[in-house]
Amino acid sequence: MCKGSNIFSELGNFFKENAESKVINSIVNMMNRVNLVDKTVGIRKRHNCKMQYSLVLQLLLCYPFFKVKDPSHYVGSTLGKFYRCGKDMFYRMLNNGNINWRKLIYCVNQRILSDIRGSSAGVEEKVCLIADDSDLPKTGKCIENIGKIFSHTAHRNILGMKLLTLMLTDAKTQLMLDYSLCGEKGNNKPARQGKKKAEKKSKDADLVQGMTAEQRNKRMKKDHSSEAVIEMEKEYFENKIDKLIKMVGRAAKHRIKFDYLLTDSWFVCAKLVKYMVKLGKNRHLLGMVRMGNTQYKTSSGYLTAGEIIKKHKKQSQYSRKLRCRYFVVDVQFAGCSVRLFFCKQSGSGDWKALLSTDRSLDFFSAYRLYARRWAIETAYKDLKTFLRLGKCESRNFTAQVASVGIIFIQYNILSKVKRYDSYETIGSLFADALEGPLEMTVVEKIWKYLLYVIILASEGSSESATELLQKAISENTDINRLSEIIKNKAVA
In angstroms, rounded to a whole number, what is the distance separating the alpha carbons of residues 365 and 358? Predict the structure, then answer.
């Protein structure tokens, strides 16, 4: 393969001619439209290198569609027979800290969004950003910056890191916009307890991230000060609210148009409310609030959410459509005018509350918009099930960052194909996408068995194996088709 060739174009041409399924062809064509060149990646190799980073990235993006788990499984795979190269070439790119994966994801998304806007002219639908985090469990204690985190799913401390994500949705297509890896420092101060407990605790007083000093010393350490990945490493222990504010700011800076930011109760706080009000331009916050001690300024004074419920629940209305009771209250919070939506699903259920900086929003619109937040939970499941999110085993923090960036680009491309091929789920799309490469593998095995049988037949015949094969190809259309597939594969 020549150094200047486009891998997506070559794969697209092959599948167009040889695969019965059109899905894999749609995916590689979509990848080709993204136009991942050296300028997009941001760095270049020397001119005498076999492959530039843009071509290596194209191969990395093709991994899940050819059932390649990681670079160590590339050699011997179906994709590896198309483009013969070693695993070290992929590891070098994953460990290269000078690639700005956030910038690369935004570059890809801008091209995807331009296609979506062009095909959705005249269609008015509220566009939302969704923020959430997810656990990335790990097993290796030597991974750079690794430590214990508290899992709200498992309700205990686990080894791993958190992934904070910002996603864009228009109710039809979901695109991953931004991300940040997060660690938790842990409590390294011994608690004030009895003498015996204090002595026992003092032995573990050097715990950081839930790990002993010996475990921390065994972790990989690398200086990233001169690399682009230093930005992600510096914010590793930063507060998630501050990270989210930076993410929303980057989305606005890249001219991503959105109407609402949807979050769960963990993120809704005074700092985020003030930022969204300051951001303006018809961009609002809509999120769940905690039923805690937070006070809101009402016409009756400062009241908590529970006190507001006691005061106004008799004025609540019943919705037969949503089968719930609800009422709306306008209050002041953190010096900003906000609207609270209270809702109770059943007679014995608990009251829930939504907060919005958009005071023109009615309850039913708020309910429908917030229901979209579930899309990010579905996306996490697809990312972990089909694209192996969190399965990177590298000790290098740079590779951990790169693996998430590559997976997000893969997911965004799948989302774009899903939008136009009318698939209900990413799972069904992914299953059909594997049919093309799977057919190649099966055809190759059948061809080997066929050649073996012909060689055996030639031993007891006056005709050579080549003559028997040519005769079989000319007389049988199925064998002729197998021959054409193998021939085209060899050319590719």
Answer: 11
